[in-house]
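Exercise: predict the fold of this chain.
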Amino acid sequence: MLKNRFFWIVAIAGLIIDRLTKLIVVRTMALTIPPQDIPVIPGILHWVYVINDGAAFGILSGSPLLRWLSLLASVALMAWAWFGRRMPRWEQIGYGLILSGALGNGIDRFVLGHVVDFIKVPFVYVPYPNPFPRFIWIQFPIFNFADIFINVGIICLLIGIYRTPDPQKHPN
């Protein structure tokens, strides 16, 4: 465990954050139709308690395959960190974040049969250059911290790819 300690620290911290925030939402907000919408920063960030029985953007909605994919990904990441090589720090952080997200949503799928989502960004600005610079509005799906951790983990892995020195260019 010590050879990839940042992996384990990040994975455990991320899982705790994900589980605590979902617990707070489930205990303090009502699951209603339409969902209760609480503005944290009006027009920018809202809490909205919804359930999702699919993956990102509702893909594979209702499929029991998702719970097994979450479990498989989690076990594979843990085995790799435990038995594999010592990873560079950016990889440890990236894979740790991905594990925390996979475990967080996987626990929801096994225990509840769905994932608890609650973070709503009402509209996202996307620059649209043609024919004149302007912005278009995109309604973004509601998500949770596990989803954030998975995406930030992927970004960390990409950073790690570009920060890892090429051994042929930098011989010892």
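Check your answer against the key: The helical segments are 5-28, 65-83, 89-111, 145-163.
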